């Protein structure tokens, strides 16, 4: 009877399987977390790209003439450019971009461009919180906006 107990205590077959069973869920969760982080960074890059393109477009002189001078694009055109240039995975959703003009008391006119991206997190076994990325870019502009009828 004692020899069977000693044999079972010394037997190490199946030890690697037990260690793998304990370590594998932790490893998979870490890999999934890295993937989620990568998706978030990809979305952040898409937001920054869209804001940069919108800011560049807002500073352009549209339809310059001697009579009207230089006119900047309308806010609707800027929003359309931001929508066109944003990118991310299809995992999250974008809110409508906003263009907020400076108050009339500002010494130098500017526009605040804003993009919001919402990304739900999935922690394999449970749903995590929704990550919200809000990015704003201020761009200083000259010239009046194009009239609404011209857009």
From TrEMBL:
Domain named TadE-like: residues: 14-56
Source domain of life: Bacteria
Keywords: Membrane, Transmembrane, Transmembrane helix
Record bears the keyword Transmembrane helix: yes
Pfam families noted in UniProt: TadE
Species, as recorded: Sphingomonas glaciei
Lineage: Bacteria, Pseudomonadati, Pseudomonadota, Alphaproteobacteria, Sphingomonadales
Name of the protein this chain belongs to: Pilus assembly protein
InterPro entries: TadE-like_dom
Residue ranges crossing the lipid bilayer per the database entry: 21-41
């Amino acid at each position: 009877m004692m020899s069977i107990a000693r044999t079972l205590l010394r037997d190490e077959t199946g030890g690697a399987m037990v260690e793998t069973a304990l370590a594998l869920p932790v490893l998979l969760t870490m890999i999934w977390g890295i993937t989620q982080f990568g998706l978030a960074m990809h979305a952040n890059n898409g937001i920054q790209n869209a804001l940069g393109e919108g800011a560049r477009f807002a500073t352009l002189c549209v339809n310059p003439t001697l009579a009207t001078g230089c006119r900047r694009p309308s806010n609707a055109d800027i929003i359309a450019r931001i929508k066109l240039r944003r990118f991310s995975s299809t995992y999250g959703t974008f809110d409508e971009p906003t263009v907020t003009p400076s108050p009339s008391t500002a010494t130098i006119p500017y526009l605040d461009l804003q993009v919001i991206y919402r990304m739900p997190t999935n922690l394999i076994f449970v749903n995590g919180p929704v990550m919200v990325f809000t990015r704003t870019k201020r761009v200083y502009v000259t010239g009046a906006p194009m009239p609404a009828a011209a857009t």
